[in-house]
Amino acid sequence: MSKSDPNAPKRLALISSKGTLDWAYPPFILATAAGAMDWEVGIFFTFFGLTLLKPKLTASVSPLGNPAMPMKMPFGPEGFQNINWPMPNLLMANVPGFETVATNLMKQTFKNKGVATVEELRDMAVELDVRLIGCQMTMDVFGFKREDFIPQAEIGGAATFLEYAADADVQLFI
Amino acid sequence: MTDVIKEDQVLDCSGMLCPMPVVKTSKAIKELQSGQILKMIATDPGAPPDMEAWSRQTGNELLRSMQEDGKFVFFFRKK
Q1: Domains in chain A: how many in total?
Q2: What is the C-alpha to C-alpha distance for residues A35 and A129, in angstroms, rounded to an integer?
Q3: Which residues neighbour A72 within 8 Å (Cβ) at sequence distance 6 or greater?
Q4: A–B interface: beta-carbon pairs under 8 A
């Protein structure tokens, strides 16, 4: 299949469907990298991914259901930091505040290693003219209003995304 | 000995991980005129393959890629 315009820049079309911290990173990392390579980029935020368009990002991480997720300590000597701490599900499910602890550990580890925050990556995506499309149907279902999202977001449905994705060189569901 | 490349601008991406070196390089090169040279320094071990891909995708030529004092150094000529 050829694109409608053979001279158009490469295009990346992403669907972001999950709102936890670990799933918030991939769409924004890919979008900013593609934007930096002068590609056109559009992200369709649907279901739990839609919360990534809120002005204040509250994405957290849950090791629940991520059985292979290593827990790293963001402090102490390197050998200590490199230990993968096994986290039994019983502990994760029953200790109050465990998600907050896990989220903070991950954020601190990322910061120490030099990874940008999700907020920073989203700002850069905006700067790179990445199209941020919020899913109208999800808004209706969860009771979100246009004003709940950053002004750069546009609102659309499946057809809006598919039309954009039809001309994309890379399409990914995240 | 290889020739010395004279850069017009230097960008230090030390300590940054993916995708920051690519994003910062893209931003920095937009400030230059066609033909000018950007020197970029990075510590991310993923930078060499990523910067080569970035160069191929954007057409900004990678003139030289080397290691210096444990860091990765790249020279790009703006297309």
Answers
A1: 1
A2: 8
A3: A81, A82, A83, A84, A85, A105, A109
A4: 43
Per residue in B1-44, pLDDT (tens digit) is 568 899 999 999 999 999 999 999 999 999 999 999 999 999 99
B16 with A10: Cβ contact below 8 A:
no
Burial zone of B3 (CB within 10 Å; 0-12 exposed, 13-18 middle, 19+ buried): exposed
**Chain A residue closest in CA terms to B30:** A36
Backbone angles phi, psi at A52, to 5 degrees: -75, -5
Mean pLDDT across chain B, nearest whole number?
A: 95
Cβ distance A116 to B20 less than 8 Å, yes or no, reads: yes
Q: Which residue of A has its CA nearest to B15?
A: A114
**Domains along chain B?**
9-77 (3.30.110.40)
Q: Which positions ≥6 away from B21 have C-beta within 8 Å? A: B13, B40, B42, B44, B47, B50, B51
In a domain, A171, yes or no: no
Contact (CB, 8 A) for B60 and B43:
no
**Is A44 contained in some domain?**
yes
Count the neighbouring beta carbons within 10 Å of the beta carbon of residue A86: 9
- Which pLDDT score is estimated for A65? 61
| ipTM score for this prediction | 0.87
Domain membership of residue A164 (yes or no) is no
Query: Domain of A30?
Result: 20-124
For tokens 């550990």, the residue is A105
Reported as a pLDDT band with limits 50, 70 and 90, residue A66 is low
Catalytic residues of B: 18
